[in-house]
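Lecture notes, continued. The same structure-token format from the folding unit now serves as the input rather than the output. Read the line below as a description of shape only.
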């Protein structure tokens, strides 16, 4: 008998395995065979469990739940029974029984993520939102010990993205943690659409998966979908796990939406709770600067550097107020901070270049131009190593745009596009007076100032991608393929996407993204009645001012004197070509003329935009609207003529810029 027992046992195990293999493709046969084994061996738990699993799969969930409840009373320590009972109870609508079963299961096997996630869904359906959220979080914690997911995450962080993707390729589409990981892998591979889809699905499957929702918010901001990001930030703020980082994330979304005051309230609340947060003081300073509260902004930046003297961005933000002069004590503190950073083994390049820019401004203010230039040069050289800018490729793209939107092309295109006249685009170089023009226009009763909006550039990039992916041989062919319906749809898309930034019922609004000069032909094609204003300033004054200004993002051309000169030359060339192709489509404002004859230039500007003259436009500095650019403080004062020739102090060092500008320089204000 002892010799026969193992053979019998092997036969039984084999029979049970054969039944289990039938469950997915022939559950009726699986049920019959499981019942047969149970009849031969009454009380065998494995056979009874298989029969219950088969019953559920043939649509007899109620019978399965009844038998599983009985089985659970005698075999309460078997996790598989509780899992199957939860499934059956859920299918019959007995939510309470499903929750009870899953609570028993997760107590026995807290390391199994699926149990927690299913429990969360039932709790949420039962209206127990807080408990559901915590169950989702427990599921995420359990998944953090999954060897397969850990291996994939390690490969991703080491840059082995193909290996990481392969490691989780077979994971279920219902696995929220794997989906979130697959989304990040796609993002790192440059596939934003797939990343957004996967992470959004992870959040839908497990709404309490806070880390996935946080990542989704950041993805949405990168995709320029701030309204959706705000909805998720509001939800994240209700997490039962307190995290001040979620409030900071919401504040950054509000800033993107132009809701500066609301963001400031969050920063002030966080600082009231824990004042020793230099980064939050810095963020508060940014908001206060934007809303015109200069004295308070200075105080906030001072608080930031007093708590972290090496916080380079706070020093630069203080210097960048333009109206603030850093004194000898500040210079000494910055030099000490710079020495500490350069002696550190940590990668603190962001702080280093910000400090160089701030020291450049401080030395410029005290008249030490040689020292100022040295620091500006050091900051620019370091920043240039951290960004990608293909000057030659950009020049080719600008030339291609000019060659596309010619007079014959525009004449052949005829009427079309979205007829709305709402937008007024201010284009040109940064530091050319565009913020001044925006402030003048937004002082008009019919015009709302917004900010530098990325929407048109995103539309243009999407169209260019059709060329890059081989759908068209070049940009001209792609532009020629746009039908009247396409053009109207693109114009309406721009208006729809920018509507969230409009806070009033004024009929017109300003889009001050200067880089849109690259797309004036596209504007003409999709928004033929939009206003276009070209803000232009003396090449040396404009380019030098851009070079010594560190921009928070974009403007990658501005960190090398030769490259900024080449960019200016590309800009002037394309605008001259467009003037010839569409005479009168662009109204040009020469900065020096605006300074010399403000009233006359303002009158001509308003007339060009079909706006009646309003005296308030001459008192633009009294406009208390939020201004986010580097000129925010300057436009809150009457026009100051002293900055027009400021570049002459640095003329001895501007040789590379002069050479890059070439014939553009002597021809100013005309094009060569």
């Amino acid at each position: 008998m002892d010799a026969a027992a193992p053979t019998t046992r092997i036969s039984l195990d084999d029979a049970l395995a054969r039944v289990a293999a039938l469950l997915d493709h022939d559950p009726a046969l699986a049920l019959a065979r499981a019942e047969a084994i149970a009849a031969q061996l009454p009380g065998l738990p494995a056979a009874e469990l298989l029969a219950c699993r088969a019953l559920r799969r043939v649509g007899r969930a109620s019978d399965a739940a009844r038998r599983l409840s009985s089985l659970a009373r005698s075999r309460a320590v078997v996790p598989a029974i509780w899992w199957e009972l939860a499934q059956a109870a859920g299918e019959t609508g007995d939510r309470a029984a499903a929750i009870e079963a899953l609570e028993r299961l997760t107590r026995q096997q807290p390391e199994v993520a699926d149990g927690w996630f299913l429990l969360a869904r039932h709790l949420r359906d039962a209206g127990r939102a807080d408990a559901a959220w915590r169950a989702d979080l427990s599921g995420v914690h359990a998944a953090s010990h999954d060897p397969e997911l850990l291996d994939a995450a390690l490969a991703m962080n080491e840059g082995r993205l193909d290996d990481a993707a392969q490691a989780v390729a077979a994971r279920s589409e219902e696995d929220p943690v794997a989906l979130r990981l697959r989304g990040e892998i796609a993002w790192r591979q440059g596939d934003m659409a797939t990343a957004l889809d996967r992470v959004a699905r992870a959040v839908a499957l497990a709404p309490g998966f806070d880390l996935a929702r946080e990542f989704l918010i950041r993805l949405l901001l990168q995709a320029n979908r701030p309204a959706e990001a705000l909805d998720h930030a509001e939800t994240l703020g209700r997490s039962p796990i307190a995290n001040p980082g979620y409030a900071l994330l919401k504040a950054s979304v509000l800033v993107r939406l132009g809701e500066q005051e609301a963001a400031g309230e969050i920063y002030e609340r966080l600082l009231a709770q824990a004042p020793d947060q230099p980064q939050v003081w810095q963020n508060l300073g940014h908001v206060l600067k934007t809303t015109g509260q200069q004295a308070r902004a200075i105080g906030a930046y001072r608080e930031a550097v007093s708590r972290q003297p090496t916080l380079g961005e706070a020093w630069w933000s203080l210097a960048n107020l333009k109206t603030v002069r850093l004194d000898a004590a500040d210079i000494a503190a910055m030099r000490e901070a710079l020495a500490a950073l350069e002696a550190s083994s940590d990668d603190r390049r962001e702080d280093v270049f910000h400090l160089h820019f701030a020291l450049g401004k401080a030395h410029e203010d005290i008249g030490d131009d040689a020292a100022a230039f040295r620091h500006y040069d050091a900051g620019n050289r370091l920043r240039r190593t951290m960004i990608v800018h293909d000057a030659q490729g950009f020049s080719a793209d600008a030339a291609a745009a000019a060659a596309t939107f010619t007079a014959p092309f525009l004449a052949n295109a005829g009427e079309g596009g979205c007829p709305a006249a709402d937008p007024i685009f201010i284009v040109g170089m940064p530091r050319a007076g565009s913020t001044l023009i925006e402030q003048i226009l937004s002082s008009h009763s019919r015009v709302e100032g917004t900010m530098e909006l990325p929407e048109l550039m995103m539309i243009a990039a999407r169209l260019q991608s059709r060329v890059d992916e081989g759908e068209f041989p070049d940009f001209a062919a792609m532009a020629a393929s746009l039908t009247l319906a396409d053009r109207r749809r693109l114009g309406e898309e721009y208006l729809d996407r920018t509507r969230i930034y409009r806070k009033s019922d004024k009929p017109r609004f300003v889009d001050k993204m200067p880089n849109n000069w690259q797309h004036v032909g596209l504007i003409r094609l999709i928004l033929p009645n939009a206003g276009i204003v070209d803000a232009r300033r003396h090449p040396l004054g404009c380019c030098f001012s851009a070079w010594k200004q560190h921009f928070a993002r974009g403007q990658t051309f501005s960190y090398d004197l030769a490259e900024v000169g080449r960019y200016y030359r590309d800009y002037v060339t394309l605008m001259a070509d467009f003037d010839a192709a569409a005479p009168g489509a662009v109204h040009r404002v020469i900065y020096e003329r605006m300074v010399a004859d403000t009233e006359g230039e303002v009158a001509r500007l308003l007339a060009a935009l079909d706006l009646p003259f309003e005296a308030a436009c001459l008192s633009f500095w009294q406009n208390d609207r939020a201004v986010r650019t580097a000129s925010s403080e300057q436009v809150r004062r009457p026009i100051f003529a002293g900055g027009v020739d400021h570049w002459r102090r640095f003329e001895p060092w501007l040789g590379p810029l002069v050479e890059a500008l070439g014939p553009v320089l002597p021809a100013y204000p005309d094009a060569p």
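Point for the exam: Confidence is low (pLDDT under 50) at residues 1-8, 628-633.
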